[in-house]
Amino acid sequence: MYKTILLPIDLNHKASWAKSLPCAIQLCQTYGASLHLLSIIPAIGMPMVEGFLPREFAATAKKNLKAALREFAAKQVPADMKVQLIVADGKAYAGILRIAEKINADLIVMSTHKRKRIEDYLVGTNAMRVLQQSKVSVLVVR
């Protein structure tokens, strides 16, 4: 049923993967699907701030995040499982949707967490935005 499963995670927040990773692993094992772990570097968003950073800042940040993601996968994902590591940048929900389309994901598995109601109303969560805009199925794990 599924061939390509995308799992966005934030290595700095265990809640972003603690429940969704076991679920994604089980789905991959059940269907023989490949697992794609995605971490996103948030965009700074202000050219004035970017001007104070070294030119190689973005490349170094991606390289370091990819190494951390590789270490994470070695510890958390079964050795016999096919896993791809992806680092993207930008807004989280936009990066998830962009990468899901790029890799032709069949399913996006992601965690969500409780937020204050006013924040959800004004800003919206990444999970909500992915649910609303995704062209593929999304499994939200609480």
Report on the structure:
The chain has 142 residues and is of the alpha/beta class. The protein has a single domain, classed as Rossmann fold. Helices cover 43% and strands 21% of the residues. It has six helices and five strands, in the order βαβααβαβααβ. The chain has helices at 20-31, 47-50, 57-76, 92-102, 117-122, 126-133, and strands at residues 4-8, 34-41, 83-89, 107-111, 137-141. A five-stranded parallel beta sheet has the order 3-2-1-4-5, sandwiched between helices. α4 runs parallel beside α6 (126-133). The radius of gyration is 15 Å and the shape is globular. It starts with a strand and ends with a strand. The relative contact order is 0.22. The mean pLDDT is 88.
Content-based structural category: alpha/beta
CATH class: Alpha Beta
**Helix content range:** 40-55%
Mean of the pLDDT scores?
88
Strands across the major sheet, in which order?
A: 3-2-1-4-5
Largest sheet: 5 strands, parallel
Helical stretch tally? 6
Low-confidence stretches: none
E-strand count: 5
The radius of gyration over CA amounts to 15 Å
Query: What best-fitting shape do the alpha-carbon axes yield?
Result: globular
What is the fold named in CATH at topology level? Answer: Rossmann fold
Q: Identify the CATH homologous superfamily.
A: HUPs
In percent terms, what proportion of residues is strand? 15-25%
- End-to-end Cα distance: 23 Å
Report a brief summary of the structure:
The chain is an alpha/beta fold. It has one domain: 3-Layer(aba) Sandwich (Rossmann fold).
